[in-house]
Design goal:
This protein is an alpha/beta fold and 256 residues long. The chain contains nine helices and eight strands. It has one domain: NAD(P)-binding Rossmann-like Domain (Rossmann fold), CATH 3.40.50. It binds NADP nicotinamide-adenine-dinucleotide phosphate (NAP).
């Protein structure tokens, strides 16, 4: 990457995607690149980000970024400032479904029940899925403020919707629990808080949910391909004109 401190000299929009070495994050990077974006692929393991960026080719840059590591986040922000000068789009995509202690989906669902959920498991999940998003956002915000069309997209889940899960007819209601689903509820709250706070700046802050996609986070049990699953995310990521503070999914607006 060349040294770059004057953001006005890069005409292409610049996007950072966290957890972009695989899964939906990588697909978002591929599609944003297809729309002319310079894509910065955040990955906690630099080598896997490097491999993904090499597959995408020119205009794709790996960047070491562990969303739970303050030093890594600061180093990434410093590097983006030095080499690109600004950020037009931040996609907070990185997340985990569990800490690694559970072997199967039924075990994860059982362990998510609020009456028995491990507080340590909940802490680990919130650290990545909620505090990690906030930490990255706070570090990148000065760079986003330098953009003429700054946007933040938080990759959430319909599984975190309080409105949907309050409805006895919602088919996935029994999966609502204190671990992963609650992290997405908290992420939604932070999304809305930031959208309200930044309303006057023109920076748009949104949440979007993919469809149920076969990726590592669900042991590849999702029913959609990554290309199909990423559609709602790419649509929300590319939207420079729509309202701030929205929560959307594959079929349009989702209730918070
Ligand atoms: N798949 C679905 O059906 C579905 C449904 C609703 C919402 N989502 C959301 O979609 C997003 C992408 O998930 P996915 O389905 O693509 O799962 P995935 O393939 O497991 O990808 C998750 C990504 O997050 C990264 N990550 C995890 N912890 C990190 C950390 N501390 N720092 C930086 N990166 C970290 C992973 O990196 P490593 O490779 O190093 O582990 C990986 O790149 C997540 O926010 C997820 O909650 C997915």
């Amino acid at each position: 990457m060349k040294n770059q401190t004057d953001s006005s000299t890069i005409n292409q929009p610049i996007a950072l995607i966290t957890g972009a070495n695989k899964g939906l994050g990588k697909q978002i990077a591929i599609e944003l690149r297809g729309h002319g974006y310079i894509v910065l692929l955040g990955s906690r393991n630099f080598d896997s980000g490097k491999t993904a960026a090499a597959e995408i080719g020119e205009g794709a840059h790996p960047i070491q970024l562990d969303v739970t590591d303050a030093q890594s986040i600061q180093a990434a922000a410093t590097r983006i400032h030095a080499e690109f000068g600004r950020l037009d789009l931040l996609v907070n995509n990185a997340a985990i479904g569990q800490s690694g202690r559970y072997a199967s989906t039924p075990e994860i669902l059982e362990a998510s029940k609020a009456s028995v959920a491990s507080l340590e498991e909940i802490r680990i999940l919130f650290e990545t899925n909620v505090l990690g998003v906030l930490a990255v956002t706070q570090a990148m915000l000065p760079l986003i403020r330098l953009s003429a069309s700054g946007r933040i997209l938080n990759v959430s889940s319909a599984a975190g919707s309080l409105t949907l899960n309050s409805d006895p007819a919602f088919p996935y209601r029994s999966f609502f629990g204190a671990t992963y689903p609650a992290t997405k509820t908290a992420l939604n709250a932070i999304t809305l808080a930031l959208a309200i706070e930044l309303e006057d700046t023109g920076i748009k802050v949104r949440a979007a949910s993919p469809s149920f996609t076969a990726t590592a986070i669900n042991n590849f049990q999702g029913t959609d391909t990554i290309e199909v699953g990423a559609k709602a995310l790419v649509l929300a990521a590319l939207d420079t004109e729509g309202p701030t503070g929205s929560f959307t999914g594959p079929d349009g607006p989702l209730p918070w």
